[in-house]
Amino acid sequence: MAQTRVNAGLDVADVSVSYGGVAALRGVTMRIGPGSIVGLIGPNGAGKTTLINAVSGVVRPGTGTISLGPLRLDRLPQHLVARAGVARTYQNIRLFGGLSVADNVRAGAYRLRSPLSDEGVKELLARVAVHEFDVSRPAASLPYGEQRRIEIARALAGTPSVMLLDEPAAGMNPRESHELRSVIRGIAQRGTGVLLVEHDMSLVSAVCDHVVVLNFGETIASGTPAQVARDPAVVEAYLGTSA
Amino acid sequence: MNALVDFYAKHSRLVDQIGVNAIMALSLSVSLRAGQLALAQAAFMGIAAYLSAILSLNAHWPLLASIALAMLVSALVAALLAYPVRRLRGVFLAIATIGFGEIVRVFANNFSITGGAEGLSGIPNDATTPVIYVGLALVAVALFALSRTKFALAVSLVREDEHAARSVGVDVGAIRTLSLALGGAIAGLGGALYAHSNFFLTPADFGFGRMEQILVACVIGGVTNAAGAVLGAGLITLLPEITRAVQAATGANVDFFRELVTGVVLLGVILFAPAGISGLWRKRA
Ligand SMILES: Nc1ncnc2c1ncn2[C@@H]1O[C@H](COP(=O)(O)OP(=O)(O)O)[C@@H](O)[C@H]1O
Ligand SMILES: [Mg+2]
Hints:
Helices cover 34% and strands 24% of the residues of chain A.
């Protein structure tokens, strides 16, 4: 099994993905250093989820390379990418619905040599701001916002080098979304690089060091949250003032 | 105690059948737990039954050695079968694996070493009741031990969501192959014990009817635990006997009635206890 933790960043270099001739990503390059939080924003259909799918081994890039330190990820099957230390969540939550909350979190530690203890499960749930409840409940029985955070806890359980979050605040109420800020900062503080795909700009501005903006599969801007917010190309992409 | 001894004296063959059927139900439960509706257990059972019978008849192998090789070969066949069906799920997997079962049966029907449609006879009857139940106990203990391992976690993740399982590092293909092979090995044990507790074998013993019986035992008992499989096997083996006894006592012709009762019990379980009889019991506990 792969090393538990490769202490190096994720490099996406000139990656293109197309679905049967339709280009979903064109030459995207970005770096997620250890402990950094990179935002990935863009209109619907811009290719954000496709990038997460490419990094996590769900789709193969047509061109370009993806590497975690010295390890090339772009030709590895999905389960080996996960074992290398890349964890993710899904835009449409994918918990193991019939299994308990505790087993869902334990599942995230699959790549590690030793299984998670009950204490370990509780601690991870606390880190995603899920406190005091019955961890033997089936995951599918929980409210949406809690399922989202349990999915993050599952991803965290494998002590990943990189964490890919696909719209984690979607479906959360404002309080939960606010709590998410410290959850995400906490992940990065322990050295994990975070890629945050999110529509909630206040969340992105609050936590991201760096933001990449995609439109029609291409990077149209990148920089600090304040820089990209002022970028005319970004304003145009979002407001559609292309005239 | 006396009643038990008396029952055994009269029905030792039935007791043996329950043991073998329970082993078969457990063997199917392994792939069902991984969410794979692979229905080739009767074929694995048949392959092992014939192999262990031939080893005893032609090569005079001792019982345990013939059981061991039969289990190994069944497991290998199951692992090989996993490859061509690797992309099939649900009902498509069921149909393909049933088809495999038919192929095995056709081969047994037409080969001279298997005795063709006549089958084999004169197999030493050395799989006694204690041997069968020691085998069953070993399977149950092995499955229980496995249930606390990482493999069991991976199996349940594959059942719940293959894609999400991959996302946490589970090699779904390997888990499917391993679970089929494990089920194949257990079915091999069941088959070898079957051969050595009956005087003869025919290809018809391992056809679709057998597969159906194993599946029904699993569904009635509840697939996710060993006790359920044993319970289901007991019920499915005894039901026809009970109706037969009713027939003998009353003189009524209940032949059609026998299958009807089995059908009604199955329907009742599916409608009212989808987790099987053992599931009902656990819910209450
Ligand atoms: N599996 C797929 N097959 C075909 N086209 C897809 C698939 N997934 C995404 N696409 C297309 O790729 C483009 C990018 O989609 P996606 O990455 O989901 O965008 P985003 O996450 O930014 O909303 C869209 O045009 C979408 O329709
Ligand atoms: Mg998306």
